[in-house]
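Format notes (please read before filing issues)

Several people have asked whether sequences and structure tokens are stored in separate files. They are not. Every record keeps both together, in the order shown below: the sequence lines, then the token lines. Line labels are part of the format and must not be stripped during preprocessing.
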Amino acid sequence: MPKQTRVRDDHSRALQNRLESFKELDQRRTHYSLAVQEAFSANEREDFHLIGTLADSVQVDAQWERAVEGTFESSLQSFWCLRPMTRFVRAPG
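Then the structure lines:
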């Protein structure tokens, strides 16, 4: 195998490993506070309907990311959840 091909393959494997590491970190939400991580863990164990964080739902162009982070700061780790449906029963009469 030519040296250039081997170097390219090694580089490709390294990038793939790095991508997998980032995916795992994202899946475990390690970049969020401990409270948010615990909420997502509770979501998996219980009948808790956590949708995601504000940061998950905000999408801006790269040039505006710092402005959004500066504006929302820790609020970006606030999370969205659904409340169970409430049934209203009309009283007789």
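For reference, the curators noted about this record: The CA atoms of residues 24 and 30 lie 9 Å apart. The beta strands are 49-53, 79-82.
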